[in-house]
Amino acid sequence: MNMRIQIIAIAGSLLIAGFIFELIRKRKLLERYSLLWFGSALVMVILSIWRGLLDRAAALMGVYYAPSALFIVALGCGVVLFVHFTIVISGLTEQNKVLAQEVGLLREELASLRESMGQGPSARGSTDGAA
Q1: What is the mean pLDDT of residues 52-77?
Q2: Of 131, 107, 111, nearest to 122 (Cα)?
Q3: Cα separation of 16 and 74, whole Å?
Q4: Which of 113, 107, 109 is nearest to 126 (CA)?
Q5: Which residue has the higher pLDDT, 34 or 123?
C-alpha cells in the first residue's frame, strides 16, 4: 500500500472517530448508537496502520490491490451500521404505533368518563384538539 494512501486512510478513520466523539459530546448522538461507529473506525485505523494485516485480509478476500480491500471493509462496516439502524428504527416505529393506540384508548376512556359525569361533549372536544 502506498504511504500516501495509508496516511489518508489513517487520517480519515481518525476524523470519523473524532466526529463521532464530537456528536456524542454535543449530545446529538446517543452513546449506545456510537459503539458501532467507534468499532468501525477502530477496525479502519487498525487495518490502515497494520499493513501486513490488510495484505492478508486482501489475500483472503481475493483482492489484488490492498487499499481496495480497505474500502470493501469500510463498505461492510457501513452495511452493518445500516442494518443496525434499520432494526432500531423498526423497533421505534412499532413502539410509536403501540403508544398511539394506547393514547387513543385512553382518550376514548376519558371521554366516556366525562360523559358519564355529565360534562358533555364540549370537554371531549378540548381533548381532541390537543393532539
Answers
A1: 88
A2: 111
A3: 12
A4: 107
A5: 34
